[in-house]
Every structure is written in C-alpha cells, then in structure tokens.
C-alpha cells in the first residue's frame, strides 16, 4: 500500500506558470472580446518579463480598445524609445491614440515620424489615410487636396443611391488625380460589381492588393464577391487571411464585422462590430442595423432591440429599408417570426410609409407570417380610416379566399417561390391599382390579371418578354392576356 501511494505521488507534475502561459491566456481572452480579463493576463505576463516587447505591444493595443489611450501611449513610447527602436509601428499606433484623444498636432507629429521612417511599412496606407484625416481636422488640408476628397464623397453618395454609372465616373476621376488613394479603388470595384461588370471589379481589387496586400476593404470586398458568386473554393482559400486580420481603425473593424455578417459568420460579426462600437466609431444607421442583427443572431435579443432603435428605420439613408439586401434576407429567414426587428419595421411602414406600395407589401408580408399577432395587425389596419384603399386590402386579406388577393398570390408563386417579393416591391403597387379597378367586378380572372401584371411590369422594367410566353406561363390565353393588359393600361392612363 505504501509503495502504491509513493508511486502515485511520483507521478505528480509540478506546474509553474510563466509569462508565455499568461500571455496566451490573455490572447485567448482578447479574441473572445473579454478585454478586461485579457489586460489582466497580459499584465501578469509582463510582470514575468517586463521588457518583452510582444507582451508590451499587445497590452498597448488592449488598453487602446479600453479607451485608456494615455496608458497605451506610455507603453508604446517605452517600447520604441527604450527597448527596440526598430519597432517603428509604435509611432503609428501612438498617432491613433492621440487622434482618439483629440490631440491632432501630436498625432500628426507621430504619424509623420512613421511615414518618414517606414515609407514602405506594413501600415503605410493606413498612415497616409490617417494623415489626410488629421490634416482636415487640424485645418491643414491644402486647397488642391479638397477637390479629390469632395469628388470621392460625391462618388460614395452616388454609389449609395444606386447611381453606379455616375459613381464609376467620379471614382475614376479621383484615381487620375490621386493614383494611390485606395479608398477610391475599393469603391470603384463595388460600383463595377453592382453594374454586373465582375471582371473589372476583380481587376480593380487585384490592383489594390498588389500594392497593399493587407488592405482590409479590398479583402472584405473580395470576400463578399466570392460569396455572392458562389466561388466556394476561392472563398475558402481567402477566409484564413480574413480570419487573421486584426484591424486597428474602428472603421476597418466595422468593415470586417459587416463582411462576416454578410457571409453568415455571426459570432465573428458580433465580435468585430462590438469592437468597432467600443472603439468609438461614428456609426451610421446601417452600422447599428448590422450590430442589431448580429446581436440577435448570437442570442442577445435585448441588445438587438436597443441597437435596432439606434438604426431608426434607416430614415437618414438615401434608400428605403425594403431595398436593402440584408433587410430582405432578414424578412425571409427561418427565424423571422421571432425577430423583433421584423415586426418593428413592418409596424413602422404601415404607420408611417409615404407610399401605399410599401404598406401593401407589408400587409402581404403579415399574411405570409400567418400567426395571431400578424392577423391582429391586419385586422387593426382594416378598421382604420386613414387610407380607404389600404384598409380595403387589409379586409380582403382577412378572408380565407378572395379572387383579387389570389392575383398577387399567383405572382408570388411565379416570382417569389410563394413568398412575399421584397425585391419586386413595386409590383405590389401595380397590383393595388388592379385591386381598385376590379373591386366591383363579379367575375375575376385571377390568372389573366396576374399575367397582365407580369407582362406590363416586365416591359416597364425593360425585361424581354412575349405575350405568348407569359400566357403559357400563367395558364391563360393570349386573348385573355391582351384583354386584361388593355384594361390595365386604361386604368393607368386614368391615373396619369
């Protein structure tokens, strides 16, 4: 028995944690977004090895995210001034900290030092962008620089409004004036892609990455292009590089987070969007929608609701929320019934939308949800007096069978896989015109009306179509199609 106890005792291994042990625990906590715990672990690592520059630089980065900018600056200055003068990126990070503190002259001094010491350094593009921002903040932007900055902003606004041809022209003009202004290239790539000019989009991104392989916006744009085009092998090859990014700028963290959101990596999306928010990003309404959706997807429903309120229904954006791709995906997701943002946006549209088209779509969407809460909301709209047409449509939607409603359901079956078609929202406005025309009709040819709507709507949107093909698709005759097309045209003429 004694020898057995001695044998067990002999197998006990004494563990003495060292600096590397605590540093790795700190990195793990940092990657999980637990900054306070990360700082404590890295601080323990530094206690073991006070002059280990890797530990010190990591602690400086963590302190910056915790908004302890002065403490971060002190560490960075010690590293580059006392321990290793070759770690010149410390000047760049000090410049960022000073910028967050609003001390722009000191920030300019540090960023100039970095640019002069490292003209081809790993952060040179970010440093140049920071320098431009700082010169604007300090009132030092030269008159000749104001032109290309203004042109780029015009291009960005055109891109947001879907004016892709105009955006391409403006971004190309900026590039002629400033060939190394990578933001213009990145936005130009998005404009090309939005036009359907994928080869030029890829070519533009490749040019950026040839000169700046770590450009966050270029890598993120390339990721979303691969994802949308189902370039699975290319996407899988690129993702490890995306996963290895640790952006310093809040704007870059936001871009990385929104990219992860786009491809459905919600945990990573939440991490980087929250990181951007904590770092003091000036978030627009789209940013807060991204953060709200990511919060909901990772199970933080209360945070999602609070953040969604900051999105304010996209009221300051140049687009309608129903035009936004991520909103469309959210409305058709499996968890849409449980998503408070979906209900909130539908309620807001029914109460405040200027266009009856968006109200009609919202009613059909509630019908699609099909639960008691949706039924109650449709019923409430049917009893209002504000818009007689919208109220009449709501009343018809409450019926189990209605020929006029069937017209729209047939269109949804053909174009939306029997689901509401947010991407073709204007078609609901066209249907509302038909609904108004036929309210007193005794015999309604639902298939013929659906065919007539589809034909005229496609013609209006410059889609190639023939009457014979549409008639066959909707199981009606060319005669019936023409008859209903003529009546719909007469109705449209009466409105004009």
From TrEMBL:
TPR repeats lie at residues 19-52, 88-121, 182-215. It comes from Scopulibacillus darangshiensis. Keywords: Repeat, TPR repeat. The keyword Ubl conjugation does not apply. This is Tetratricopeptide repeat protein. Pfam families: TPR_19, TPR_8.
């Amino acid at each position: 028995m004694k020898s057995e106890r001695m044998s067990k005792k002999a197998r006990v291994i004494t563990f003495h944690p060292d600096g590397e042990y605590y540093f790795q625990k700190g990195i793990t906590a940092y990657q999980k977004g637990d900054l306070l715990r990360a700082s404590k672990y890295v601080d323990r690592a530094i206690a073991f090895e006070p002059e280990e520059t890797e530990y010190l630089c990591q602690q400086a980065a963590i302190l910056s995210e915790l908004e302890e900018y002065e403490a971060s600056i002190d560490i960075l200055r010690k590293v580059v001034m006392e321990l290793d003068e070759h770690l010149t990126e410390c000047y760049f990070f000090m410049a960022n900290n000073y910028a967050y503190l609003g001390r722009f002259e000191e920030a300019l001094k540090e960023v100039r030092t970095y640019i002069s010491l490292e003209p081809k350094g790993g952060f040179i593009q970010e440093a140049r962008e920071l320098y431009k921002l700082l010169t604007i903040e300090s009132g030092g932007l030269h008159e000749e620089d104001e032109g290309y900055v203004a042109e780029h902003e015009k291009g960005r606004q055109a891109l947001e409004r879907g004016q892709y041809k105009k955006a391409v022209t403006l971004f190309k003009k900026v590039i002629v004036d400033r060939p190394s202004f990578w933001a213009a290239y990145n936005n130009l790539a998005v404009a090309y892609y939005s036009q359907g000019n994928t080869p030029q989009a890829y070519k533009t991104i490749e040019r950026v990455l040839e000169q700046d392989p770590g450009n966050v916006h270029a890598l993120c744009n390339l990721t979303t292009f691969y994802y949308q085009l189902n370039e699975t092998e290319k996407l899988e090859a690129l993702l490890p590089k995306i996963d290895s990014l640790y952006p310093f700028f809040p704007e870059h963290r936001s871009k990385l987070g929104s990219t992860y959101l786009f491809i459905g990596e919600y945990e990573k999306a939440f991490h980087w969007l929250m990181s951007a928010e904590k770092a003091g990003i000036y978030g627009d309404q789209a940013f807060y929608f991204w953060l709200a959706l990511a919060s909901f997807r990772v199970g933080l429903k209360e945070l999602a609701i609070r953040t969604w309120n900051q999105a304010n229904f996209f009221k300051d954006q140049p687009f309608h929320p129903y035009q936004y791709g991520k909103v469309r995906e959210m409305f058709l997701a499996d968890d849409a019934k449980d998503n408070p943002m979906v209900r909130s946006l539908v309620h807001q549209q029914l109460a405040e939308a200027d266009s009856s088209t968006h109200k009609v779509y919202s009613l059909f969407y509630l019908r699609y949800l099909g639960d008691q809460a949706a039924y109650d909301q449709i019923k409430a709209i049917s009893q209002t007096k504000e818009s007689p047409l919208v109220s009449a449509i709501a009343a018809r939607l409450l019926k189990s069978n209605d020929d006029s409603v069937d017209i729209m359901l047939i269109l949804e079956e053909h174009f939306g896989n029997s689901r509401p078609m947010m991407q073709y929202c204007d078609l609901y406005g066209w249907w509302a015109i038909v609904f108004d025309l036929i309210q007193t009709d005794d015999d309604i040819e639902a298939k013929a009306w659906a065919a007539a709507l589809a034909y005229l709507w496609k013609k209006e949107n410059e889609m190639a179509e023939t009457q014979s093909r549409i008639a066959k698709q909707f199981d009606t005759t060319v005669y019936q199609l023409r008859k209903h097309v003529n009546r719909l045209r007469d109705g449209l003429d009466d409105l004009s």
